[in-house]
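Researcher: We're teaching a course module on how sequence relates to structure. For the next exercise, students receive a sequence and then see the predicted structure as tokens, so they can try to spot secondary structure elements on their own. Here is the exercise chain.
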Amino acid sequence: MTTQRMPIPIQGRKRESAMTDGHQRVLIVDDDAGVREILSILLSDEGFQVAVASNGREALNRAVELLPDVVLLDIMMPDLDGLEVCRELRAHPKTRYVCILLVTARAASADKVAGLRAGADDFVTKPFDPSELVERVRTALRRGQDMASLNPLTRLPGNQEIQRVIESKLATNRHLALMHFDIDNFKGFNDHYGLQRGDAAIRLLGDCLTVAVETVEEGAFVGHTGGDDMVAVVRPDAAEAIAIETIQRWERSVADLYDTDDLVRGFIEGIDRNGRRRRFPVMALSIGIAMTEKRDVMTQWQISDIASSMKNIAKRTAASSYELDRREGELRVTEIVSDSELEYGLDHHKVLVVDDNPMIRELLVMYCEQKGFAVLEASDGVEAYQMTVQHHPAYVVLDFRMPQLNGRYAAELIRGVAPKVTIIALSAFLDSKPEWADAFIDKDKLHELPEILSMLASKQTKFPSNNGAE
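Model: And here is the predicted structure for the students to work with:
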């Protein structure tokens, strides 16, 4: 009896064209057409977007092109076997963090050890049970999403989880204190000593903060918004004690980051954001604290704005310090930020740079800071959306091709909360400005960004958003 098969190549093309529509994406790699077909049908019926590859080399190309959430990878293939594909996926910057499930007919421990060493997350043994396979794929996705939400430097949750925690507490009317932490003079330190020691300073803040929180309020939430900025969501009665404990731990350890000669002098020399040479004192902490206990806070944006304002007041003190919002009652007009009003709170000194390539981001940050802009960074579209919600940049330099969300979809999300933001598309593939952007810069001409920003800032007019809002 002949079994009628579904036209997998046609299905594959349809599914791949929709791989950016929000569904979870699986790349199936197997040299057996029958296995590819069975897995495609099984996972498609469970709601996954499916793409296929018939050999290892094709798998590498498809993975870089499509950026799947999970790769279901057969070990025994000709030419390039699954273990080598796994190693190459882990080595490529675009696929380094993809979830990889190895499909194998071998159940021996030595084979699994070899797979783990190659970078696999889990195994599916042939012949496989359909329900078990689907559950293993889902488990790998959950694990991958949890890991992706952590900052790779500090291993602390990022903006998406920060927003979820705050909104959850506000929705259940639980009082909270939101604490914003920032390292003063960090840019001068980072420029003077280099990125490696700058990363050490950021990790030190993370360590001081997490230990302080565990000492005062075990189990309270700590997050990393990016760069040298971190937050804590704690009980109102624990906030000041956590601020004091964090500062004390920081002051005991920060000297270890400096060379002895610089400590003796009490400063290092470098270039500030305006291009002027100046002396930078030893790094200090500025902490802003906002509470819901006595203020009529309704949204996470409002409490975040208040905490940020308190942090800016704390920065007026040269030494490490914290500032607590002690006001009561209704918010002032300037503190009220809602979904529909967010665009009116744009900070015209802030630029958000969004690119998954850290070297590109570093160059763009340097060019922006030379023009006196305060610069934020994001490595993908989801993080860019969260940074826009929290920091209200007036300008977003947005890479066209990124993991999770490409430039178009990221622009739509950003404009949903900030319709008046100015978006500058960044690409090595486009020849001109796409319709979703207000300006365009080629990656071969990054040095032109300061001129573009200056031109946009001098106009002092808002570009129309995609929905026609002025």
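Model: If you want an answer key for the exercise: The radius of gyration is 25 Å. The chain has a mean pLDDT of 81.
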